[in-house]
């Protein structure tokens, strides 16, 4: 950010201010027209509503882009389209991850591609087939849901889920998601605390987690 501002020419700064001005004006118009509550009413989870409200107050301010990470050796193209990676025979702790894909200005990104892949509960990747691999697209409010199992540990890494995220027409973000409270988080050379899932354990032994991605859209 500092670099960008220092290297900006005067005219580019003017353009940036114009864009910010338009953004704030548009936000005001939305609120004045009473459109915001109707949009919020379509969002399902209460925490998503709170977040959308907070984002409304910061329109025009840049969100922090989700950090990119190495792809690792086990990505495969052409994963099946599915939001549930588990089958009746999948072993492990059922994990449901939900969240949104957002643009840098906080706007939800509809129809964004998310391609997940991960190790099974014993720490093994399926490199011959597509077990625990799948891609999906965000809905009209930028929401996604991943139904999977908590990945197992394998040598040299802490617990993680791989993902590629791409807004329509945007570049592909390759990154990884992590779990809180893992002993190996402190020794894993790739681990990034900004990529830790917000997890919740349920009384039935399953787990829920949330994570929002912020990506470039062009
Ligand atoms: Fe991995």
Task: Sum up the structure in keywords.
218 residues; alpha+beta; Protocatechuate 3,4-Dioxygenase, subunit A; 2 domains; five-stranded mixed sheet; four-stranded antiparallel sheet; 9 strands; 22% helix; disordered N terminus; binds fe (iii) ion
Report on this structure.
The protein is 22% helix and 24% strand. It contains four helices and nine strands; from the N terminus they run H-H-H-H-E-E-E-E-E-E-E-E-E. It has helices at 2-7, 10-32, 35-42, 46-56, and strands at residues 94-103, 113-117, 133-137, 143-149, 160-166, 172-178, 198-201, 207-210, 213-215. Strands 1, 4, 7, 8 and 9 form a five-stranded mixed β-sheet that branches. A four-stranded antiparallel β-sheet has the order 3-2-5-6, with no helix packed on it. Strand 7 and strand 8 form a beta hairpin. The protein binds fe (iii) ion. Residues 72, 74, 157, 160, 162 line the site of fe (iii) ion. Residues 72, 74, 157, 160, 162 line the site of fe (iii) ion (FE).
CATH top-level class of the largest domain: Mainly Beta
How confident is the prediction overall: mean pLDDT? 81
What small-molecule ligands were found?
Answer: fe (iii) ion
Judging by the overall fold, what is the CATH architecture of the largest domain? Sandwich
Shape call? globular
Gyration radius, to the nearest Å? 19 Å
Largest sheet, in brief, is: 5 strands, mixed
Ranges with pLDDT <50 over ≥5 residues?
Answer: 1-57
Count every helix, treating DSSP H or I runs of 4 or more residues as helices. 4
Strand tally is 9
- Helix-strand pattern, N to C? HHHHEEEEEEEEE
The CATH fourth-level homologous superfamily of the largest domain: Aromatic compound dioxygenase
Amount of helix: 10-25%
Through-space gap between termini:
18 Å
